[in-house]
């Protein structure tokens, strides 16, 4: 399908301007295994490409099918592959074309294409692996052509007659690579005859294969040869711009964001808007890609004011990136549609929760300075993350260039949605609000830890221009560095002060889990790992849904213990109890905020 559309952009722009966004009417049915929607060219041409569903089979042991037919030893790899596939899939050998293959030890692999009337099907391919005369596996997207509507094999429209329209639509020029004639399977099962040509644009580095209907002249599909997306940002492992930026290619996690960060599978953008996040400088449009192919590579320069154009662009991209990483990793840990997350539309096959609520990121929000905030309305309405400028340094700094601040803010959205089932009404007491602040710092701390050696952690050190950051003490397992304990809640009358006590307890819990279970670098992609830092995040997020509305420290600690009982069969009970107790939140602690160091006898 090929259509011009800008409605996605319009809708997101509307979302940027208000917190009260109606659920968007995107179809629930998404097709991430077989389709890819791209937005191409200056005019937002939306192209949906189709790749027929795969069959993938693996075999082992004596049940593996034999490929030994006739004089096996003398047959070529191509003939062996063709005869196996044709009998396996019920397709005549005349319709299977050998393309390429290789032999490695006793393993032989063949790549084949389906064909009709000697014309190959562009998007219908198969690969077969043999070990000796046994078939080890095969994958195939071959289609049943018996019942398909197949276009006549004689072209009636030449590609040169429509070339200028195609070039114009794709914003690229024919590159003199010979055109080929290929069949193309459409998602409705029909099979079109196409001229396949390549077009390129040296200025934007775009490079596409265009599939032009040889009977109508329409553009039916494209292959995009260029890597998809790149972002020049502060990687989430680093704290802020002071540690430098890098250009990351395709950082999106396709399990969490199957259409990437700029599409919901139906509509696409070429700017800092997508299914999870819509980001812009307040009062400005989202930032557009700096070059063809979703490249967002503005360079931040903190010797210049944050409001110069390139700095604004870089800051929006950085915030967009961090919030999308937060979406993607928490999705794997269970913050999904059904658990009231922030998305414009549902991922393929997912139901539950209200959609139409991507996070709206307002960078350089003029409503404040030296701070940031996150407004969490109920599920179905966009969360709004507002980042401010900081004027502590001579040249002002932008909160959106500081990873830990963005993560802290996003965590408000996550904790408010997971506590109490998406109502956003359950972190309203002073104590629960304090827990909320603590979770924000603890999440940023977790993201920044990078080895079995748990380091002390300071918040907002870059914008505040001080190594100690903006809290009273860095978070630490060393009571000489951070002495905060449960009894300090007696004198804490403000959410951030309360939050510091909680975040420091969680820092100690984290360190104890990592000491006992180790550290895994794949924390963002492997929620099922057994390392301490992964277990910590499991308990962090699981406990939110378990704890009551407006929880206290004591109830939240119990929710951690219950989460551990549920998910890990109580394996970490003593580690958790001991760590909480070391900061006064032992099992005997009550709402008088007196330190208690009780743990179960077996601990
Ligand atoms: C297609 O038709 C042929 C001939 O009738 C038959 O042998 C084959 O099994 C059919 N293929 C499929 C996939 O149904
Ligand atoms: C392209 O087509 C021309 C004309 O048919 C032919 O002479 C030439 O060898 C082809 N080039 C390639 C690289 O296949
Ligand atoms: C690349 O830019 C040059 C100079 O602006 C222009 O003449 C040329 O047409 C552009 N190329 C394409 C493929 O758009
Ligand atoms: C972890 O981060 C710290 C602070 O940036 C750095 O000094 C250290 O080398 C990093 N360690 C690893 C294992 O990457
Ligand atoms: C983690 O394990 C669960 C249950 O086995 C599985 O459904 C899920 O896909 C796994 N997650 C990842 C990211 O591998
Ligand atoms: C509470 O416990 C902490 C850590 O053990 C300790 O440093 C602090 O002095 C205690 N506070 C009170 C009031 O007992
Ligand atoms: Ca939602
Ligand atoms: Zn906060």
Automatic annotation (TrEMBL):
GO MF annotations for this entry?
metalloendopeptidase activity; zinc ion binding
Keyword field contains Secreted: yes
Say if the entry is tagged with keyword Nucleotide-binding. no
Q: Which cofactor does it need?
A: Zn(2+)
EC top class, as a word: hydrolase
E.C. numbers: 3.4.24.-
Annotated SUPFAM superfamilies: Metalloproteases ('zincins'), catalytic domain
Could you name the Gene Ontology cellular component terms for this entry?
extracellular space
A Pfam family recorded for this sequence: Peptidase_M36
Alphabetically sorted, this entry's keywords are: Hydrolase, Metal-binding, Metalloprotease, Protease, Secreted, Signal, Zinc, Zymogen
Q: Name one GO biological process term.
A: proteolysis
Q: Which domain of life is it from?
A: Eukaryota
Family note:
Belongs to the peptidase M36 family.
**Mind telling me what this protein is named?**
Extracellular metalloproteinase
- Which organism was this protein described from? Pholiota conissans
């Amino acid at each position: 399908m090929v259509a011009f559309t800008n409605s996605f952009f319009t809708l997101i722009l509307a979302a940027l301007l208000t917190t009260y966004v109606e659920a968007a009417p995107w179809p629930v049915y998404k097709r991430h295994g077989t389709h890819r929607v791209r937005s191409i060219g200056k005019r937002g041409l939306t192209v949906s490409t189709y790749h027929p569903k795969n069959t993938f089979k693996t075999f082992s042991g004596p049940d593996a099918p034999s490929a030994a037919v006739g004089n096996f030893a003398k047959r070529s790899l191509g003939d062996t592959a063709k005869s196996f596939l044709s009998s396996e899939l019920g397709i005549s050998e005349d319709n299977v074309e050998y393309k390429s293959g290789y032999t490695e030890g006793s393993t032989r692999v063949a790549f084949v294409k389906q064909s009709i009337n000697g014309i190959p099907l562009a998007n219908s391919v198969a690969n077969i692996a043999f070990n000796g005369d046994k078939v080890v596996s095969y994958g195939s997207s071959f289609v049943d052509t018996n019942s398909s509507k197949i276009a006549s094999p004689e072209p009636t429209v030449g590609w040169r007659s429509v070339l200028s329209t195609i070039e114009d639509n794709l914003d690229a020029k024919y590159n003199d690579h010979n055109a080929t004639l290929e069949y193309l399977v459409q998602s409705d099962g029909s099979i079109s005859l196409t001229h396949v040509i390549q077009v390129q644009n040296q200025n934007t580095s775009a490079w596409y294969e265009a599939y032009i209907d040889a009977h109508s002249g329409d553009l039916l599909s494209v292959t995009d040869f260029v890597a998809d997306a790149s972002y020049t940002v502060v990687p989430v492992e680093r704290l802020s711009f002071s540690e430098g930026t890098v250009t990351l290619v395709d950082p999106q996690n396709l399990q969490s964001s199957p259409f990437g960060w700029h599409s919901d599978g139906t509509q696409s953008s070429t700017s800092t808007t997508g299914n999870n996040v819509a980001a812009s400088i307040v009062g400005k449009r989202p930032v557009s890609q700096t070059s063809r192919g979703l490249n967002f590579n503005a360079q931040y320069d903190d010797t210049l004011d944050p409001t110069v154009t390139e700095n604004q662009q870089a800051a929006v991209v950085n915030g967009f990136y961090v919030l999308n990483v937060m979406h993607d990793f928490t999705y794997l840990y269970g913050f999904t549609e059904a658990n009231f997350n922030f998305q414009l539309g549902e991922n393929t096959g997912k139901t539950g929760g209200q959609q139409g609520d991507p996070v709206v990121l307002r960078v350089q929000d003029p409503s404040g300075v030296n701070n940031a905030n996150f407004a969490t309305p109920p599920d179905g309405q966009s969360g709004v993350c507002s980042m401010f400028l900081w004027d502590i340094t001579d040249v002002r700094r932008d909160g959106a260039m500081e990873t830990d601040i963005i993560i802290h803010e996003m965590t408000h959205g996550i904790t408010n949605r997971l506590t109490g089932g998406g109502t956003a009404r359950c972190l309203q007491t002073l104590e629960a609000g304090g827990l909320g602040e603590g979770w924000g710092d603890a999440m940023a701390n977790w993201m920044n830890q990078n080895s079995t050696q748990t380091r002390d952690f300071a918040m907002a050190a870059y914008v505040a221009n001080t190594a100690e950051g903006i809290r009273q003490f860095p978070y630490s397992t060393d009571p000489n560095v951070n002495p905060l304990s449960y009894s300090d809640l007696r004198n804490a009358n403000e959410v951030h002060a309360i939050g510091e006590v909680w975040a420091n307890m969680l820092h100690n819990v984290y360190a104890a889990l990592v000491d006992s279970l180790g550290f895994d670098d794949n924390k963002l992609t492997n929620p099922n790992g057994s390392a301490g830092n992964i277990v910590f995040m499991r308990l962090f997020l699981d406990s939110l849904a378990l704890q009551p509305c407006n929880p206290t420290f004591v109830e939240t600690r119990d929710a951690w213990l219950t989460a551990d009982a549920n998910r890990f069969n109580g394996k970490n009970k003593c580690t958790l109890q001991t760590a909480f107790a070391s900061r006064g939140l032992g099992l005997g602690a009550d709402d008088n905020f007196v330190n208690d160091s009780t743990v179960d006898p077996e601990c």
